[in-house]
What we know:
The chain is α/β, with parallel strands linked by helices. The chain has one domain (11-361): Rossmann fold, CATH 3.40.50.
Amino acid sequence: MSDPSPPSTTSTTKPQFAPRSHNDVYPFIHPKKFKGALQDKVTIITGSAGAIGQALAESFSVAGAKLVLTYNNTPPPTTLREKCVDLGAGDVAFVKCNVAELEGCEDLVKQASVTVIKHYGRVDILINNAGANSLGLFDTQPPEAFIHELAVNLHGPYYLMRLLLPHFKSQRSGCILNIASRAGTVAIPYSTGYCAGKAALINLTACVQKEVDIDGLDDVHLYSLHLGGIKSAMTLSKYSPSSISTLPPATHSVFTNSFNTLYNDSPYLNGMACVALASGIAKHVLRGKYVDVGQDLEDILAQAEAIKLDEELYSLHTSFLGGLVNGVPGIGAGTGNDAAKEVDGEDGVVTGKEGKELKERGRQETFEFPGF
């Protein structure tokens, strides 16, 4: 028996060029371009009280969506409703919901059924944005804290997807945007619960999309996203001096420097990238995929054929020596020919070319939302 050899590749399976990197809104996803693009589309956004959720609400307002904004402990600022209406939102409703509990998600969907669906006849877009993230040693972190992160980051999105997908299937259209993280694709020490939950969310998205595609529902499209490095209340708390001080001393400077270097992206970059994806502009190329919003969407779509030919692009996968295929032909992706990302094994920080691109983002752009 001959030795196995890696599967052959051709130039058509590889990207022709590296997409440009951004840290703020750029021309292809400019709010002017998508003004009214989602007119009256009923959009549920979880975790709307924070900087990321508010930017999502404002971005979808420009697109003309009708918004159902959820929060848990802290209500959004009282000015958010007026701001969203001024930007173009068709309607704005606030709903208290603990997405970590099935009962809370069921109550949200029941309220949507009684008010939103009864009034508007449909829900069109679900954005699972609520998140929980903390630092801690795996063997000393209280199990309740670990389970809570999984409940918010994975169970909540699962509950709402499970509850709303039959509605999307019935109307044969709908979009689900799961806010994941780069942490779902790399191993970061002391962020075990967050990494595990986000990795599962990325694969959950891909699996459900495959089921939808088998049903022939072209207008039901799902995405998981890395939203960039954003200074939010959650990340400021996670990387605060008091939080970092609980870690081994040798890691303190690493986490402090990583936060200061990598967390300089605008929340509106994620907001407008989500609007663009919800509009369907990339549904035939990136449906079910894991998308880094910092990559130029125009550059990605220009290489649609390369992405279609290599299922491992924009997906959660692994590689093996010898090109071992990691998947089931016709069902699961896997060609075994993608180069592994460079990651510092001691502190989990992305290095190499990808790390350099991340560092460059903070020096590239500024954008005053909404830009008109």
